[in-house]
Amino acid sequence: MSKLFGETKAVDNVDLQVNDGEFMVLLGPSGCGKTTTLRLIAGLEKPTSGLILFDDMVVNDLEPKDRRIAMVFQDYALYPHMKVFDNMALNLQVRGLSREEIRRKVWETAELLGIKHLLERKPAQLSGGEQQRVALGRAIVREPSVFLMDEPLSNLDAALRAKMRGELKKLQERLKTTTIYVTHDQIEAMVMANRIAVMRSGRVQQIGSPQEIYNRPANRFVAEFVGSPKMNIFEATLIIDESPRLSTGSFDISLPASIVKLMGESNSGTELLVGVRPEDVLVSTTSDKDYIESTIYLVEDVGNLSFVTLQAGDVLIVAQAPPSVGLKVGEKAYFKLLAEKLHIFDKKTEKLII
Ligand SMILES: Nc1ncnc2c1ncn2[C@@H]1O[C@H](COP(=O)(O)OP(=O)(O)OP(=O)(O)O)[C@@H](O)[C@H]1O
Ligand SMILES: [Mg+2]
């Protein structure tokens, strides 16, 4: 489907299939069309073109209330003047369920979320995490076929956010309700998703399991968007002679025959982008075979790990090292890039070659 707002292509030919019971995450930077995609699925927006199907039924003309979805927004949107119980019960009352049935469903859901003791309070008397749980409870109690969640954890502090994402993931596994979850937080996407759809400028860049997205990013954008610190990417020329290598102008990386073979139609002289994750850069204070000389440009210690920026000629490379190595800015260090861990992209299209 596509969605235009005037000249803006908010959603551009998105083709996405979400499996029954799946936790699908839409991941991408601000403005890439995540919320619009979710609102189209919910029926809050109409697609400019394309079809939306639930199971085998086209739902383009179905009202949001008839789609059996429940949406959880970033700002929870709880009714401030209503008690937690009534916030959760409201949709069931509208549907005309009996008082007894409503009470039972709300209690069951509150039990599941550990918020039974909060049912008589008003939203203002709750912490951020508790409000979040109430917003989830309100969605769960409706027993929808699909949960649509738009950055539901983004108002929480870092610690609570990490806790809630674990709880939410466990909850979804228990309920097995198909979930489409929007975030721009790549860690959240990695830990929660069964599959991730990475979006950019209204287009889906890649769909895959977190491992596929991390280990085989389809293009430069995905490679740099997922992973922290981000993947190192630098330009290099492929040279195929008696010692095949990638030459950056500042240093060479020798290529084993197995990799040269995978490069297929790329001729000697082809300009490429080479990517390598910080954890795949080996650092040493002493020189060794295949190690490249560099100067330590920056050391960032995060406690259990150290991120070291190395300068070799014009190229800056971030490496992950144990903090005990004792690397100091301005001193020499040697690094090695493991050929089998390299990600090689076409320079022009920025698409993955190997
Ligand atoms: N109602 C609207 N009218 C006009 N343009 C809109 C409207 N809604 C969204 N857009 C535009 O469509 C694009 C996608 O917006 P969308 O809200 O889907 O992005 P997003 O990925 O959810 O971003 P964020 O992470 O910031 O929430 C943006 O360029 C936005 O300005
Ligand atoms: Mg959004």
Account of the protein in words:
The protein folds into 2 domains: 3-225, 3-Layer(aba) Sandwich (Rossmann fold); 232-346, OB fold (Dihydrolipoamide Acetyltransferase, E2P) (Beta Barrel), CATH 2.40.50.140. It is 26% helix and 29% strand. It has helices at residues 34-42, 84-94, 99-113, 128-140, 158-175, 186-192, 210-215, 220-225, 257-262; strands at 3-5, 8-11, 23-27, 53-54, 57-58, 69-72, 146-150, 178-183, 195-200, 203-208, 232-239, 245-247, 252-254, 271-276, 281-284, 292-301, 306-312, 315-321, 332-337, 343-346. A 6-stranded mixed beta sheet has the order 6-7-8-3-9-10, sandwiched between helices. A hairpin with a 5-residue loop joins strand 11 (232-239) and strand 12 (245-247). The longest helix has 18 residues, at 158-175. The mean pLDDT is 94. The chain binds adenosine-5'-triphosphate and magnesium ion. Magnesium ion binds next to helix 1.
Main attributes of the structure:
354 residues; alpha+beta; Rossmann fold; OB fold (Dihydrolipoamide Acetyltransferase, E2P); 2 domains; 6-stranded mixed beta sheet; 5-stranded antiparallel beta sheet; elongated; binds adenosine-5'-triphosphate; binds magnesium ion
Give the total of domains. 2
Going by helix content, strand content and strand pairing, the class is: alpha+beta
Shape: elongated
Instruction: Pick out the low-confidence regions.
Output: none
Strand and helix layout:
Blueprint: E1 3-5, E2 8-11, E3 23-27, H1 34-42, E4 53-54, E5 57-58, E6 69-72, H2 84-94, H3 99-113, H4 128-140, E7 146-150, H5 158-175, E8 178-183, H6 186-192, E9 195-200, E10 203-208, H7 210-215, H8 220-225, E11 232-239, E12 245-247, E13 252-254, H9 257-262, E14 271-276, E15 281-284, E16 292-301, E17 306-312, E18 315-321, E19 332-337, E20 343-346
Helix pairs in contact: 2-3, 2-4, 3-4
